[in-house]
Design goal:
The protein has one domain (62-334). It starts with 9 loop residues before the first strand and ends in a 6-residue tail after the last helix. Strands 9-7-5-10-12-11 form a six-stranded mixed beta sheet. The chain is of the alpha/beta class. It is built from eight helices and twelve strands. 26% of the residues lie in helices and 15% in strands.
Length: 336
């Protein structure tokens, strides 16, 4: 889920840069109407002209989010959940007949609104392939709430569970080479070391801050900042680099997602940590792999689905085939 927001666009991991203009023109999307619209901004890469993935913000649907966290979201007319429909991957592109038209509409929309769809090289897909089938995360804990070792491990388990739900939809499909993509948390960033109530060295600890005063994992170790894969200045070397950040912010109502990772409320994450489907996090991970929002249009004949904010709380059959569609259009870049 995310709110489309107007200029200024973003630079770095979700921070606004005054006066910046995304490569899509304006804030990264073509104007959709004559009236002001909120739009998905793209951030600029630290390497120059290459854009970052859309940086997303959620609409202020606090009542809806509260209902979602309580498991009370009403899913009226939603597409069948992918787990209910079966996640066994088809070897080739063969979506259900009722989804063919809306899937074609979605991809035409993607091709017409993403300015560098095929040139951009930091989708979640690119990260998985660069790591030969794994992902590294760093947690940005923007809260003064103490974190125990048990809480740390619960967050890791929850993140792995949500990531796996997406990978399961593409395992075995159209030469996707991995049945499982392990997720490792290699570091935590925090303002005060004392907030983290463990003494083991299982993860790297960072106490540096970004320009907005939020805890920041070492840029020298971050793929967002080093998309060339050069981690020579990372204290732990390439093995301790992180591909994405899980940014957990006290009082953050909603979510954001892009190639840099995902941002959700710390209270929301802790409250949902044992849920099978952590709705907002799942949605934001979808953005990391390139999936779009659907605030101002709906594909023909499709009811609720995860990437249409507030209309489903899990990956549906339609989400699954949109996800697969992205893979099948990008796989040639990996020689597959």
């Amino acid at each position: 889920m995310s709110v489309r927001f107007v200029s200024p666009c973003v630079s770095g991991e979700g921070r606004q840069l005054s006066g910046a203009r995304g490569p899509l023109g304006g804030c990264g999307r073509r104007p959709r109407t004559a009236t002001p619209r909120r739009c998905a901004a793209r951030s600029r890469s630290p390497h120059g002209s290459e854009p970052g993935m859309p940086k997303r913000r959620l609409r202020g649907l606090r009542a809806l989010l509260t209902a979602t966290a309580a498991g009370a979201l009403s899913l009226i007319g939603f597409t069948a959940p992918a787990d209910a429909a079966g996640t066994g991957a088809s070897d080739t592109w063969n979506p259900p007949s009722n989804l063919v038209q809306p899937l074609n509409e979605v991809w035409r929309h993607v091709e017409s609104t993403y300015p560098d769809l095929y040139g951009f090289k930091n989708y979640g897909w690119d990260q998985v392939m660069a790591n030969k089938g794994s992902l590294n995360y760093c947690v940005r804990w923007e809260s003064d709430q103490p974190v125990t070792a048990q809480m740390r491990d619960q967050i890791h388990t929850a993140l792995k569970r949500q990531s796996k739900k997406w990978i399961d939809q593409v395992a075995g499909f159209e030469k996707f080479p991995y049945n499982d993509v392990p997720v490792k948390i290699v570091g935590w960033a925090v303002k005060n070391r004392s907030t983290l109530q463990w003494s083991d060295n299982s993860v790297d600890i960072y106490t540096g801050l970004d320009g907005g005063g939020a805890p920041q994992c070492a840029p020298d170790c971050g793929r967002f900042f080093h998309q060339d894969g050069n981690y020579s200045k990372c204290p732990g070397g390439a093995a301790r680099h992180y591909d994405q950040s899980l940014w957990l912010t006290k009082g953050f109502g909603g979510g954001a997602g892009g190639d840099w990772g995902q941002r959700i409320g710390s209270e929301y994450m802790l409250g949902a940590v044992n849920q099978d489907n952590i709705h907002i996090l799942l949605h934001e991970i979808g953005h990391t792999y390139g999936l779009d929002d659907f605030y101002d249009w709906s594909p023909t004949g499709v009811g609720g689905f995860l990437m249409k904010a507030g209309s489903a709380d899990r990956i549906t059959e339609f989400d699954k085939w949109m996800y697969r569609d992205f893979w099948r259009h990008l796989k040639s870049r990996y020689g597959l």
